[in-house]
Amino acid sequence: MDAGVATYRNNSATAIWSRLIEPDHGNLTPDAARAWLRLAFPEEDHKRVDELYKKAQQGTLTQDEGEDLDDYIRASDELAIIKARSSLKRAGLDA
């Protein structure tokens, strides 16, 4: 096996965020955890995502719109990971 493959780390934005926020290592205070848990997408972003999903289902999504939708999905996934880790911190559990 190639040594480069054995030491590969996932460097997607989601994986990077996951490594940055590690409640069990003390780098997320309870106040910070509560602040992350309050984050939510504004209503206008929800409407935009709904519009993009509908266009995707209809097959009328442009390449730029597809990239926008991918960005929303990625940001949502990242926020979900951050919130999950924050919830664990608030509960006093390790991630």
Summarize the structure in short.
By secondary structure, this protein is mainly alpha-helical. It contains five helices and no strands.
Indicate the overall shape. elongated
Rg to the nearest angstrom?
Answer: 17 Å
Structural class: mainly alpha
**First CA to last CA: what distance?**
30 Å
Residue share in helices? 55-70%
Describe this entry's structure for a reader:
Helices cover 68% and strands 0% of the residues. The protein is elongated. The longest helix has 28 residues, at 63-90. The chain has 95 residues and is mostly helical. The chain has one domain (3-90). The model is unreliable at 1-7 (pLDDT under 50).
List keywords for this structure.
5 helices, 0% strand, disordered N terminus, 95 residues, elongated, mainly alpha
Helix/strand layout:
Blueprint: H1 3-6, H2 13-20, H3 30-38, H4 43-58, H5 63-90
